[in-house]
Amino acid sequence: MEAESPVSHGVTGKVIHATFLSALKMLDVGKWPIFALCSQEELKLIRQACVFGSAGNEVLYATENDEVFVLGTNCSGCLGTGDIQSTIEPQRLDTLCGKKIACLSYGSGPHVVVTTAEGEVYTWGHNAYSQLGNGTTNHGLVPCQVSTNLVNKKVIEVACGSHHSMVLTSDGEVYAWGYNNSGQVGSGSTANQPIPRRVTSCLQNKIAVNIACGQMCSMAVVENGEVYVWGYNGNGQLGLGSSGNQPTPCRIAALQGIRVQRVACGYAHTLVLTDEGQLYAWGANSYGQLGTGNKSNQSYPAPVTVDKDRVIEIAACHSAHTSAAKTQGGHVYMWGQCRGQSVILPHLTHFACTDDVFACFATPAVTWRLLSVGIILIYNNMSVEHISPSKGMYLLRQTTVKVCFLLFIKLMRKQKSRQKPDDHLTVAQSLKKEFDNPDTADLKFLVDGKYIHVHKVLLKIRCEHFRSILNNNDDDIIEMSEFSYQVYRAFLEYLYTDSISLPPEDAIGLLDLATFYRENRLKKLCQQTIKQSICEENAIALLSAAVKYEAEDLEEFCFRFCINHLTVVTQTTGFAEMDHDLLKNFISKASRVGAFKN
Asked: Membrane-spanning regions, if any (predicted)?
């Protein structure tokens, strides 16, 4: 293990602790009325928060020190304070302090289910239907860990219906328990389930990646994009084309050929988001919550158009009839029951996030998810172990990160004369700022007659290609002719930021570079970026590029897009000029998936 290195030359341990570990901003919770009970000092410390309850009158929040507090009316002991007394003063939950809450959900009783960063599950509150999973029907007045059938399982997501609970483990298994009058636990019966039970049947050999609960139904998305549903279906919220309840998981056949990424459930309606950024909805629609332009229920998935833009986030909550979505362009839309009005089509708001829709327009004013502020620990999310703040010393767990840290210190010293005393940057921010900075760089790339200024040590840390060519190279300038200036600059910037800032339509060149340099992570990022630009006109060109650069994920994505838009795609110039071998393989594969059946 390397020796600890003291921070010196005027850069104190206190400054590094604040700069190196923190990139926090205050969580804006002021739109929820319950937070009016907190002082400004308390609000500044909040890093996570959840507002819940039948009237939005209960709240749980975590501070920057991982302390957990609650306040509100405390129905059924849902605050976990050990009694059923309401409180307008924040009360500390010692059981959860230091646990680092990762995900939280709540029911109508209400009952609360949380999972920690370690994958532990804690429940408390209303328990008349065994929704706490502890084998009893006694209300839980304090958070208690749920371990039955979850031993050695790391839970990564939790979801609650009205009176049932569901969790998703890191290995893709789904467990459910609680109220089961309509089959929402997925056990095949309608008997209540007192302890966690694995949901099997059609999910037995599937790996789930996302779960959600409506009032009395449950849903899971599996890794191949299929959606499985079970439970109450009186409003068609299961999307099966019927209104009969489903006691075990059933695949939504109407979504065949569509790869779903996320599912969200309202009181009795369902939203899904596909990998193409498209939105589908079904179920109850008495408030227009499906966004289809009418108030008729839908028992099959119906497409929802949100200003012809790609949707990147969907939001719904089992306690409300409100829907929301955010587009790639940053626009937030809402529809459904909005402060007593029925909005039957997606309505553009002035909000920056979907959370604000539920704070200002949902009834009750709750949060649809656990609100969180991200913490940037150090560059590329690699960890730092705090050793001694008084001496300003840190032990970095990875040697390469330590070099990166020392580079950060060097850059901070250079910037010190230009900064105000409290104007400090994180490692990630500093490295991003120093990209293409001629004042600190020790190497220049000459591409298309333009210079790009970089730092040798960082390039060697981040890229095997540069590690090999720079080891015995003392040149200050390296000419590059294989790639364009725009592409090569984007590549070098990626090494500093771990992200790519290149328009989707220009990412093909970067995909070529990533393949040539064997940068697999960059290759994945390029594929994700390219997917965002797909349309009927360029689908064949993108498919051809995916095949050329052996980008299997992008190839499969483009193929499915072409199949889903086959009529239009086959009429494009790209299809008419398609390479003979590619066309042959395309037709063969399309035939195998039944694309040409009448």
From this structure: none
